Each structure stands twice: as structure tokens, then as C-alpha cells.
Amino acid sequence: MRFSGISQNGELTYEKIDKIITRKLKQPSKTIKLSYKKIKDYFSVDTSPKEVEEVVVKALKAWFEMCNANNQNVEDDIEI
């Protein structure tokens, strides 16, 4: 534990204890993969994966903004 190392050096203060205890834990990043078969009809064959990602992000942003502007719950319009 970090306390023992700091304590042995004589540097353990209430402020340092508070910082250690209350620090926010880093959230692990999430990766999402889409099947190309599901989205291929919307892109030309020469569209790069990076371009596809950019378009999907822009489309999702526009969709959520539209739903929020219309005071709609996004999940109500999507059949899963």
C-alpha cells in the first residue's frame, strides 16, 4: 500500500492521506466493434475504417441531439 512507503519516509500527512483516499480511479477504456456486414450499405468500398468511425460518431451525435431537441428518449425509437 502507498501509505507504508510514504510513512517510512516520514512524509505521511493528513493531506496526503486525503489525496490518496479521494483520488478518482481511472476508468478503463471500452472498445466497441461493429460488423462491417451491418454497415457496409452506407459506405463505399474505398472508405477507410477511420472515415467510417468518424461518420458513425457524427451520425450518433446528430441523432442524440435531435432526440434531445424533441425531448424524446433515444431508446424509445430503437428496436433492439
Approximately how much helix is present in the residues?
40-55%
Shape: elongated
Supply the number of structural domains: 1
Element order: H for helix, E for strand: HHHH
The class by helix and strand makeup works out as: mainly alpha
Q: What value does the average pLDDT take?
A: 80
Poorly predicted parts: none
Q: Can you offer a commentary on this structure?
A:
- This protein has 80 residues and is mainly alpha-helical.
- The chain has one domain (2-77).
- The chain has helices spanning 2-8, 14-22, 36-39, 49-69.
- The longest helix is centred in the C-terminal third of the chain and has 21 residues, at 49-69.
- The relative contact order is 0.06.
What is the structure about, briefly put?
The chain is mostly helical.
Task: Summarize this structure as a short list of keywords or feature phrases.
51% helix; 80 residues; mainly alpha; 4 helices; elongated
What's the structural blueprint in terms of helices and strands?
Layout: H1 2-8, H2 14-22, H3 36-39, H4 49-69
